[in-house]
Write a structure and sequence with these properties.
This protein is an alpha/beta fold. It has ten helices and 15 strands. Strands 4-3-12-11 form a four-stranded mixed beta sheet, with helices on both faces. Strands 6-5-7-8 form a four-stranded parallel beta sheet, covered by helices on one side. Keywords: Ligase.
């Protein structure tokens, strides 16, 4: 992120363009970030924001009483307190089971959206491993290519996706996320008393490999550092706190958690302690049903979904009056599309996420 130049006369106040350097600068106030030389993982930073964000929302109640995640299809839920315990429990278990897993190692993840996925992301990043999530419905050849690109030492999959690894091998093996063993790692009996993992993670260390879409040729891996994720989380967290705090907000995630948009929005939501409803896979009727059932107030969406919402007659079969805003990202949103959506849903604000 570029900060404002001290010579404000050289910068166009309406655009932030510096005519001397050809660089656009943010018109927002400078953002305070942790010193770059301070060891800090994305997980540590995000959970520190969660601890700061959530107490006011509890109105004096224990943090464990506030729901963080709900799986729409089953109604299973995970509270903030349970999230913190499971991340710590899993991190300890992974270090004990795979002591060689370090910041130079990549963990490949092939799983539908579930309550375990955010826990796994945070636990892996807390011990310095690089998370590399991929599309669970991708073809075998696509998955093989992503494995070849990221060179993981370990893979996490489900019993429904593991068959896609037939031609791949991993030095530390494959962990099934729906196996009794993995589930036991999430719920250690000593998780409340066990000490946090002491692993030095530098902000310049790699944190995630996410995969491109919409580019020419085969899919490409994009490496993000902890500093990248910390900075983007800090920006979105600060913007949200500048607005009136909305403790009744309920977010619905129809976005895939392996995609950069879903990945980033998930981390942002955790940092703010928002209540989230997860869809295991996108289906319009299931999404609309979840909005009605859980009184969803907002959700991140892509432009094609906005088009679907104003065109589909199915929207009239559900009570969507709780919806107040949509965060649109992943691609530019056309003005004509926004206007047509506004005609059908005049009380729903569209916020362009950049």
């Amino acid at each position: 992120m570029q900060t404002k130049n001290n010579d404000s006369r050289a910068i166009d106040p309406s655009s932030g363009f510096d005519r001397r350097t050809g660089i656009y600068h943010s018109l927002r106030p400078s953002l305070s970030l942790p010193p770059i030389d301070q060891p800090l993982s994305t997980t540590e930073f995000v959970l520190s924001l969660l601890r700061k964000s959530s107490p006011p929302a509890t109105a004096g109640k224990d943090i464990k009483a506030i729901t963080y995640l709900v799986k729409a299809s089953s109604g299973d839920s995970l509270t903030y307190g349970e999230l913190l315990l499971k991340v710590r429990s899993l991190a300890v278990s992974l270090r004990e089971r795979f002591p060689s897993l370090s910041s130079t190692n990549v963990a490949f993840i092939l799983s539908p959206a579930s309550l375990h996925v955010p826990v796994l992301y945070l636990a892996l990043m807390s011990i310095g491993a690089v998370v590399s999530p991929a599309n669970p419905i991708g073809s075998d050849s696509e998955v093989s290519h992503q494995v070849e690109v990221s060179k993981p030492v370990i893979a996490f999959a489900t019993s429904q996706t593991v068959h896609k690894f037939r031609s791949s091998s991993f030095p530390l093996g494959i962990v099934l996320m729906d196996s009794p063993e993995f589930l036991s790692w999430l719920t250690r009996s000593d998780s409340s008393s066990v000490k946090p993992i002491q692993v030095r993670v530098n902000q310049s260390d790699p944190a995630a490999i996410l995969y491109s879409s919409g580019t020419t040729g085969r899919v490409k891996g994009v490496l993000l550092t902890h500093r990248n994720l910390i900075a983007s989380t800090a920006v979105s967290h600060k913007r949200s706190l500048e607005d009136p705090v909305d403790y009744d907000r309920v977010g619905l995630f129809s976005l895939p958690l392996f995609h950069v948009f879903g990945f980033g929005m998930m981390i942002r939501a955790i940092s703010l302690g928002e209540k989230l409803v997860l869809l295991e896979r996108f289906e319009l009727g299931a999404m609309l049903k979840a909005v009605e059932k859980y009184k969803v107030t907002g959700m991140p969406v892509s432009p094609p979904l906005i088009v679907t919402l104003f065109k589909s007659e199915l929207t009239y079969k559900y009570d969507l009056r709780s919806l107040r805003s949509l965060g649109c990202g992943g691609a530019p949103l056309g003005k004509d599309v926004a206007e047509r959506f506004k005609q059908k849903f005049p009380d729903v604000e569209i916020i362009q996420v950049v």
